[in-house]
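Researcher: Go.
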Amino acid sequence: MRPGATCNFIAETGGPGSTEPVAGGFRFGGRQSIGRLTLVCLAALLAAPGGSASAQSLTDALAEAYRTNPQLLAQRALLRATDEMVPQALANWRPTVAFTGQTGYTVSAEAVGRSPTAYSHSKPSSLDLTATQPIYRGGRTEAQVRQAINTVEATRAQTLAVETTVFQAVAQAYLDVVRDQDLLAVNRNNEYVLGQEFESTRIRVEVGELTGTDLAQAQSSFEQAKAQVVAAEGQLEISRANYTRAVGHPPGRLTLPRERPALPATREEALSLAARANPNIISAAFTELAARDNIDVVRGQLLPQISATGDLNRAISAATSAGVSTSATTSTAMITTTMTMPLYEGGAIYSQTRQAQQTVGQRRSQRDDARRAAVQLADQNWAALQAARAAIASFTAAVRAAQIALVGIQEEALAGTRTVIDVLVAEQQLFTTQAQLVTAAHDTAIAEFNVAAAIGRLIVPELRLPVRLYDMGRHYKAVKDKWIGFAGGLTE
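Model: Structure:
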């Protein structure tokens, strides 16, 4: 990615010594000054390197979002939770061990005829240790492991999709702020110029050169410009709020970035990349594979289940009867193998299998739809990019022509061959084309980021952001083969 760019708003004057600094640029005095952004400045706004050392770059904003955005952090937590499906599936290969202990106290009374009642007391207790090792589960364990791994892969791809969405939001918010900053500066310059025009017209009316109608026309244009400044200020605050939501803190002075993602050279290449590299397509493909594995998981319930069980038991009985105490200890060790063959379960498993097969069809169609959506987005954003680039060329020429026209009309107005309304119309035309050029620059940058998102390139490795890359396999490796314990549940 390339370093950022900035541009101070400047204007051409009718003579030397007529500049006056204002927020966002310069204002210009003098009757012949036109108080506007020059073509040189607007061209620099689109392409020139350099910028204020205190300005925040788009790279900084993207890096901050990568580290702190709640949506992305939540998705990473979901991925770590999904990682646990693999050790849960692998647990079906491992034995289960249970320990059981029992103890009690028994009193019994026995009376025979007229003999005295005989009481006896006993304290039976037992210890039992059982270990069960699954041997064959109808192929369900293998299928569950495959299903878990494919689900993890799908979630990893979805994490990249969320990362892409977050970066799109950051780029949109950043570029909206840049656009609205520049439009506010254009509007303020326009307000100043029309204010100067209004004041000049008022003076000329007082000396009898112009009429009250000319003054009313100049005042109307000036008041409209003031309203446009207020509207531009409000839109800038909205865009700043969106930026704060996406990045996590309010923006400073932002500049139109030179940082742009690497894009393919042709439309056909863009569509091809979108069809195979879009994260949503990759996620949908792994989700389909997981659905196929689920068929084997369900169907395996109809196959034999074989397990081996080892049991260690010790029973201790201490009894007292007629004043005589006795004690007995019995130890037992046993290993058994059990096979269970389902014969008929009411048809539920057959229904569940058919249901799983239909789910595969659903996932396959969702994958195809994801591919179509990705290709559509790439196609329409590519078209928007080409249109925006062409618009920049057209509006650049329009600004140049409007500048020349305004200078000529102002000179003619001074000579008395043009009216005030002619000057106002020319100034409005220049203002409009300047605003259109700023918007076209914004739209071009947005389209480039949208194309990159559609083809899977709006992610950290492609953008080469200065951040530590989140390792999506680290937590997986930490928990995959754990047999016991809570450690390893990494949260970063």
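Model: The longest helix spans residues 348-415.
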